[in-house]
Design brief:
Elements: H1 15-29, E1 32-37, E2 41-44, H2 70-73, H3 84-88, E3 94-99, E4 102-111, E5 119-126, H4 128-177, H5 193-215, H6 218-227, H7 250-255
Antiparallel strand pairs: 1-2, 1-5, 3-4, 4-5
Helix pairs in contact: 4-5
């Protein structure tokens, strides 16, 4: 008060009480929680709720490497190989521990400000609790990849079925433009309605042009196209007199008009 220190009030909790709190979490929620002081000392654990043997002034906290809980003592040990759970659950704050025939997953987080060393708040559980989910996820990924491959294959097949008729129409149109009707083939139908209608219309047009070619010389058509490239040929009705004659060489002559 008024710049003078009158006293200090602090709140504290013993290691046994903190461990008892973690023990209650294990009983109520099934959480195997513990706290490490730094990386090598156990600060709180359900086994320490009623004290822990072998502690003294020299070693006020049990060492993590020799702790009674085998999962905690093996937390920093390297292990060979990877299980299916490790492929789906890994990171800087995840450890996988093998003990006997069982595998455990340890999740931890680091907090500071409570002592000279950081605290690691951790919990662990058996990996088989999530192994089934990991297997389902693995098969789901495989299924999605398979479906993606099948979808891509179907899309390529459909695209090819669309492209082939369009390509035939384009090639046929080029030949029609050059009046090479003898080289133009009928366009086969398609199971796509629009492409099938386009193919049928092209085939009908081709038949009509072939009939037209019988009576109108190709050279005459090409000449008219050269003389009138940008405008339509106007038609008209006229009364004419037709005389049928048989002139030698007239057919050849008319084809070259």
């Amino acid at each position: 008060r008024s710049g003078q220190l009158l006293g200090v009030m602090s709140a504290w909790i013993s290691i046994n009480q903190l461990s008892e709190f973690l023990s209650n979490l294990e009983s109520e929620l099934g959480a195997n929680a513990f706290i490490l002081h730094g990386h090598d000392q156990v600060l709180a654990h359900p086994l320490m709720a009623f004290g822990y043997a072998g502690l003294n002034r020299a070693t006020p906290l049990p060492l993590q490497t020799s702790y009674a809980d085998p999962v905690v003592s093996a937390m920093w040990k390297e292990r060979e190989g990877k299980s299916i759970v490790e492929w789906f659950m890994s990171g800087p704050q995840v450890k996988h521990v093998a003990y006997g025939d069982l595998e455990y997953v340890i999740l931890f987080d680091e907090i500071t400000g409570y002592s000279d060393q950081p605290w690691l708040i951790a919990t662990y559980f058996e990996s088989h609790d999530m192994a089934a989910e990991a297997r389902r996820l693995k098969w789901a990924i495989i299924f999605c990849i398979a479906m993606a491959v099948i979808s891509a294959s179907v899309a390529m097949y459909i695209g090819r079925q669309i492209a082939q008729p369009v390509r035939r129409l384009a090639e046929g149109s080029k030949k029609v433009h050059s009046l090479n009707l003898a080289d133009v083939e009928q366009i086969p139908g398609s199971f796509f309605r629009e492409l099938d209608e386009a193919a049928q219309s092209f085939n009908v047009m081709l038949d009509g042009l072939r009939w037209f070619e019988r009576y109108v010389p190709k050279g005459l058509v090409q000449r008219l196209m050269r003389l009138n490239p940008d405008r339509e040929i106007e038609s008209s009705y006229r009364e004419v007199a037709v005389m049928f004659t048989d002139i030698v060489g007239f057919t050849t002559l008319s084809e070259n008009m």
